[in-house]
Design a protein that fits this description.
It contains 17 helices and 24 strands. It is an alpha/beta fold. The protein has 3 domains: 233 residues, P-loop containing nucleotide triphosphate hydrolases (Rossmann fold), CATH 3.40.50; 176 residues, Rossmann fold, CATH 3.40.50; 79 residues, no CATH class. It has a 6-stranded mixed β-sheet, with helices on both faces. The chain has a 6-stranded mixed β-sheet with strand order 18-21-22-15-23-24, with helices on both faces. A hairpin with a 2-residue loop joins strand 19 and strand 20. The longest helix is centred in the middle third of the chain and has 16 residues.
């Protein structure tokens, strides 16, 4: 169906794709895996016309094609859902989805017809997306679902999905996989770029493994396993489970009491109470858009609570600023690295000192120290394996996973008393996931408090010592990750399980 032959692509001195050849057969689900910066997204963006290869060929149905733009790709039946959203915030869901594929005439768009068709697609996927909603009013998870709908709306014969399940619950993933299997049964071809090896094994027919811009393996899924794939991806054996001793919680670091936080559509957090102690990881599970974002942002000082009280080390900090909270020892890894975590047009050096740029050792007597900045960014790039290790590069030039590692390294360098962390491994490769998990456990074992929000149930249950399940802005229940199954937690997230005060 699709052949990429000897594709090479460079960005300055960085070789993103080095003579890459990939063959995808018609009516199959083909997975592409590899570390961050391995070149997976780049080569698929070339297939979609987002980038132009320096050399190499694209063949479709046995004929060479010249794809110079996404318009060319769509015309050839190729659709793509990008890891980072391609949406216009001020437009509605329907307007974004039909953009470039409008129904009706230029002066009379048939939006009602589009709304009906999009609603039908949304219902089939059970994504609960309102076609008339504004993009800027949607959560990160809902925006991801709009991207899925946008590609499916165009009836693509080949659908390229870049980390498509990052914001779905286990039940939603199964439903989504059901849609992909039905598409496969209809003769359509699906390419999935993902870091989730369990999903690769569950849904794909073939797997292409990339490392350092090259293809290092292509195997039939039925003939491999997670350990074998991980070894090919990283080039060494990888620990696929989280190893940790039992927690030894000490004093209460943060206490949340009857907290209420307003969202865009009323109360996003509705009377939540819980504590996090030194030496423990408290996990929050829930489908995105159920108040987790607003909770973390209130605790980080990015928004003011509507009611209730936040105490940090016994002190009322409910109305303190984000800067003051950081000075007290609260670090924050946000879920949206672009909006909250980075200055995309600034270089890595500047991004490495965000939040500490005005205080020693980075600054003294009103002046910033270039030596201190160089030291800090060098340690972050080295210790957290941010690639490429060039401090003068802009943050936007990094892959999504390397952007995430830069943020995590910056916040860990603060040696915080409390770490607020949302979606720490979204879009991060398996080797880096192992590293980040180990760092979170080490922070806990140093006697620090960690509040972890993750859409990955396997991740949050593996890391958390206690688990709170969020639904509709409230705590639907508290679970012991050791004894509660992922399926039971998923039911609690969707309203099918127990509900109790926590």
């Amino acid at each position: 169906m699709l052949e990429l032959k000897n594709i090479t692509k460079t960005f300055g001195t960085v070789v993103a794709n080095d003579n890459v050849s990939i063959t995808v057969h018609r009516g199959t689900i083909h997975a592409i895996v590899g570390e961050n910066g391995a070149g997976k997204s780049t080569v698929m963006r070339i297939a979609y016309g987002f980038y132009k290869a320096d050399s190499g060929e694209i063949w479709l149905d046995g004929s060479r094609v010249d794809i110079r733009s996404p318009h060319d790709a769509i015309a050839n039946g190729i659709g793509m859902v990008h890891q980072h959203f391609m949406l216009v915030d001020t437009m509605t869901v329907a307007e974004n989805i039909i953009l470039g594929a409008e129904t009706g005439t230029a002066t009379n768009l048939d939006l009602e017809r589009a709304n009906t068709e999009i609603k039908k697609l949304s219902d089939e996927l059970r994504l609960n997306v309102n076609p008339k909603a504004l993009i800027e009013d949607l959560s990160v998870g809902q925006q991801q679902r709009v991207e899925l709908l946008k590609a499916l709306y165009r009836d693509a014969e080949i659908l390229i999905l870049d980390e498509p399940t990052a914001v779905l619950s286990p039940q939603e993933v199964e439903e989504f996989f059901g849609i992909l299997r039905r598409m496969k049964g209809q003769g359509k071809t699906v390419i999935i770029i993902t870091h989730k090896l369990d999903e690769v094994l569950a849904i794909s027919d073939e797997v292409t493994v990339m490392r350092d811009g090259k293809v290092v393996g292509n195997v039939k899924t039925a003939e491999t396993d997670a350990r074998g794939l991980a070894r090919m991806i990283v080039g060494r054996d990888v620990l696929l489970r989280v190893e940790k001793d039992d927690a030894t919680p000490a004093n209460i670091v943060v206490s949340v009491k009857d907290l209420k936080v307003l969202g865009k559509h009323g109360l996003a957090v509705d009377g939540v109470s819980f504590d996090v102690r030194a030496g423990e990881i408290v996990g929050i599970a829930g489908i995105e858009g159920n108040g987790q974002t607003e909770l973390i942002e209130a605790l980080a000082g990015l928004c003011k609570p509507y009611g209730g009280r936040i105490e940090f080390e016994g002190r009322d900090v409910t109305n303190l600023s984000a800067r003051r909270l950081k000075e007290l020892g609260i670090a924050h890894i946000p879920e949206d690295r672009h909006r909250r975590g980075l200055l995309l047009n600034s270089d890595l050096s500047e991004n490495s000192v965000l939040g500490v740029h005005y205080r020693p050792p980075v600054a003294a007597s009103g002046f910033m120290s270039s030596n201190a900045i160089d030291k800090r960014v060098g340690e972050i790039l080295e210790n957290f394996d941010v690639r490429p290790r060039n401090p003068s590069l802009s943050a936007k030039s990094l892959s999504g996973g390397n952007q995430q590692k830069l943020i995590i390294g910056r916040e860990f360098e603060l040696d915080p008393k409390l770490l607020l962390v949302s979606q720490p491994t979204r879009g991060v490769d398996i080797g880096a996931i192992e590293f980040i998990h180990r760092k979170l456990i080490e922070l806990r074992d140093k006697g620090r408090a960690v509040l972890l929000v993750s859409a990955e149930l396997e991740e949050v249950t593996a890391l958390a010592d206690r688990l709170l399940v969020f639904r509709e802005g409230k705590i639907a229940g508290e679970a012991d990750p050791k004894t509660t199954s992922v399926e039971e937690i998923g039911l609690m997230m969707t309203g099918g399980g127990r509900q109790n005060d926590a």
